[in-house]
Structures are given as C-alpha cells and as structure tokens.
Amino acid sequence: KWSAGIGLGEPAVSSIADLGVDLDHFVNLATPGEDWLRVASILIESFDIVLVDPGFLPSPSERARLLAKVRERRMSLISLRPLTGSTE
Fold first, then answer.
1. What is the DSSP code (8-state) at residue 78?
2. Which of 46, 47, 75, 79 is deepest in the core (most CB within 10 A)?
3. Contact 37, 12 (CB under 8 A)
4. Helix or strand run (H / E) with residue 6
5. Contact 67, 77 (CB under 8 A)
6. What is the pTM assigned to this prediction?
7. How far is CA 87 from the centre of its chain?
C-alpha cells in the first residue's frame, strides 16, 4: 500500500520507518498552510493512508469535506494532532 504524509518533519518520518512502513511507498510533502487542504484532498483521493500534522485547526466545514472524501474512498486519515469534531 502507498501512504503519504503532510507536514511531518524528519523525526516523524524516521519514526514511521521504525514502525515498519515501507518508505519506498511513502511520500512526505512539506506544504504551505494556504495549500494544505487542497493537497490533503488530492492525497486522500490518491493514497491508501495519509498521515497529517496540519499545524492549525481546519474549520468544521473543511473537516466535513475531508472526512466525506475519506469515507467515500474507504481510506485511512491519521492526524498527529486532535481535529476537534472529527469523530462526530
């Protein structure tokens, strides 16, 4: 399976490798805040697993749109920071 990360630093990527994730099938992107939601949306459509550390709290409507795509694609979105309201 292919996986991707947004906003993860080198230590996080090293930890991911320690957990057994095949880095040959892992893409890590440094994304400016203004592009984060667009890039996350594209990755959700393209990868099986997406790990995110947005560095900000997306609005309820932004979270709803992302989570709708996650459900539609039946993929996994893992946030390293709590996304308040994301489990509702």
1. E
2. 47
3. no
4. strand 3-6
5. yes
6. 0.80
7. 15
